[in-house]
Amino acid sequence: MYHGLHDRLKCGTLKYMGYQGSFRNKNRWDIEDVILKLISMKNATMELLLDPEKYMEKYNRREIQRRLYYLKHKKFITFPARSPKGQVLLTKLGLRRLNQIKFQKIRIKRTVWDGAWRLLTFDIPEKNSGTRQTFRRKLKELGFFHFQRSVFVLPYECKTEIDLITDYLKITPCVHLLQANRFFGDKELIKKFNLHVP
Fold it and tell me: The whole model's pTM is what?
């Protein structure tokens, strides 16, 4: 069992957080995003965050320190000056950035089809057209098929992921997720998603 942030980091926190293998390519997961993730787990000190071992030794101490001060300059984090034991905290801007990272990482697991369709409908006001476009792009990224004007279809369970997305975009009242049985004419959808009919 893990006991505190330090032990969790020693026992492979990066794997625990979903960063397993991510450091093979530095461009894939930016070190700044990883730092924000670590800080969000609480009890993170400057001393702990500067330890290259916590980053699978893919970054040296100077590089980590440079990024920490950059994040502080951007007002994403705050920490007491010249205090290695002092706690490093996320600011409101840092929390917003962390939530953006989580939003970008949302994926829907492809499972064995249960024979039901997930129909997603939405009516986002014109004044929020930017948010509407972001939502549409995210649905397509997740594999939804644009069935009609504001109706998207997916054969997999996705309520948790959609709840996270609508909460992040603050459009929960505008989005409705329905579950439907097979219907006449859905053979093209079955073919498109390459599904095995149960």
Answer: 0.73
Please report, in angstroms and rounded to a whole number, the separation of the first and last CA atoms in the chain.
Answer: 40
| Rounded Cα distance, 109 and 84, in Å | 41
Helix (H) or strand (E) holding 134: helix 129-141
| Domain span at 95 | 4-105
The continuous run of DSSP H or E covering 73 comes out as: helix 61-73
Instruction: For residue range 70-104, list pLDDT tens digits in order.
Output: 999 999 999 876 666 778 999 999 999 999 999 99
Whole-number Cα distances in Å, 148 to 77, 120, 137: 43, 10, 15
Cβ atoms of 96 and 170 within 8 Å: the answer is: no
User: Cβ(29)–Cβ(19) under 8 Å?
Assistant: yes
Q: Do 8 and 100 belong to one domain?
A: yes
The partner residues of 90 in beta bridges, in order of sequence, read 77
Say whether both 134 and 172 belong to one domain.
yes
Here the tokens at position 168 are 């992040």
Q: Which of 91, 70, 3, 6 is nearest to 44 (CA)?
A: 6
